């Protein structure tokens, strides 16, 4: 019987022979993070009326785990889900009726 060697998690497309193909998932996720971070801050603070600091923290908590998703997608999903729940709880403090008037 041969011993089984446990390998650590590998990034998406890590077995590709070309360097640019191996870097493609990281580049895509980086571009998504750069685009989603200011967009999320803007939406949470301006549209929903959440305080800027809280909106920034929630935006980082929701966008940064995308970098983790290349290697550990399930862990990243769990972190993003927890950040979404925290965002929902934070948005319960906003008085939407006052903002609509």
Secondary-structure-derived class: mainly alpha
Helix content: 55-70%
How many strand units? 0
Main beta sheet: strand number and arrangement? Answer: none
Mean pLDDT: 90
Radius of gyration, CA atoms, in whole angstroms: 19 Å
* Mass-distribution shape: elongated
The span between the termini is: 73 Å
Q: Count helical runs.
A: 5
Secondary-structure element series: HHHHH
Percentage beta strand:
under 5%
Poorly predicted tracts of residues: none
Folded structure, characterized:
This protein has a domain at 65-95. α2 packs antiparallel against α4. The protein has five helices and no strands. By secondary structure, it is mainly alpha-helical. The chain is elongated.
List its salient traits.
101 residues, mainly alpha
